[in-house]
Amino acid sequence: MKRYFYASGFVVCLVGGLAFTLVLAVVNPALASGRSQDQESRAVQEPAVMPATVDTNEQPARLLSAFFGLDNDLPFRANALCFGASGKDGMPVVLSHTIAKETLQPEDFQIVTRSGDVHTPICVTLKPAQDPGELRTVLLIGEFGDAPDDPPISVQIVGDLLSDGTPSVNFIGAHTDVTPLAAGPSLVMAEGVPESEWARKTKGTACPAGIQQVVRVTWDGGVRLPNGDEPGDAERRLYRVMVKRADGSSDEINPVALAELGDGDNNHFLCLDTADPAVAVSFPAGRLVDPNQDLNPDTHIAVSRVAH
Q: For 231-273, what is each residue's pLDDT tens digit?
């Protein structure tokens, strides 16, 4: 398990007992030579970084989803993400907060199958969801069990994976059930996008000028049309956004545009022509598929926060 020591304005990541002893001698020679064996044992077990358990909005770090997207079927091009990924399992997991990518390591994740076998990814990556606000979807690559005989059923974070916010929150201990291979993709998050990010250059398409609000929706896996194309105007009209009017009433509207397309990730921008706050998003069943060609169910999600 990785540990972080803050000394003289930098962070040292420790792996192994020898590295621990050597760095400790640099940080505090007296402690390295004067501690009892029992004290040193406790120091190894206790995390050197103690980030907050909740963020400034009192929200804990959580695993929102783990999606068994592909079983021994990652394509050859996945080798560009991780050498040897072709033919392995692919499982995107979505986190409640964007993460500090320098704290992300394969051994942070533990996958348990129905039979009780425990697996660790051979590789983890934030690609392709790397635009501002998207650093919360981690693709786990490796061997995680086989459907239908012994599929993965749960994922737990067992390492010090930290958010990039202030204060930082630690995901260690977060866990979630795995969405089975045969299930289709669902919405797992919707949030308002700060106006400062609307015009930032990203890998995906942008909302048009003149909009008044943008909502980012995140699916638990990548989504496309059954023919492989990106969603288009027909899918824009299928997205329904509930907004709260100034008089307290609610109304359902369609986005005037659909953006954040063309980058191959699991996020869409819903571009709205009203400043009335969005409170929920829905999308009907049977229109989008994951990489395993499973159709989405009817899905809806509350908007977690509204951008100002």
A: 999 999 999 999 999 999 999 999 999 999 988 899 999 999 9
Closest-CA residue to 162 (of 17, 302, 6): 6
Q: Which domains does the chain have, with CATH numbers?
A: 3-45 (no CATH), 63-179 (2.60.40), 187-302 (no CATH)
Task: Give per-residue pLDDT as tens, 195-213.
Answer: 888 877 777 888 999 999 9
Distance (Å, rounded) from C-alpha 280 to C-alpha 167? 27
**Which amino acid, residue 262?**
G
**3-class SS string, the chain:** CCEEEEECCEEEEECCHHHHHHHHHHHCHHHHHHCCHHHHHHHHHCCCCCCECECCCCCECCEEEEECCECCCCCHHHHHCCCCCCCCEEEEEEECCCECHHHCCHHHEEEEECCCCEECCCEEECCCCCCCCCCCEEEEEECCCECCCECEEEEEECCCCEECCCCCEECCCCEEEEECCCCCCCEEEEEECCHHHCCCCCCCCCCCCCCCEEEEEEECCCCECCCCCCCCHHHHHHCEEEEECCCCCEEEECCCEEECCCCCCCEEEEEECCCCCEEEEEECCCCCECCCCCECCCEEEEECCCCC
The predicted model scores a pTM of: 0.80
Q: Which one, of 218, 177, 228, lies nearest residue 66 by Cα?
A: 177
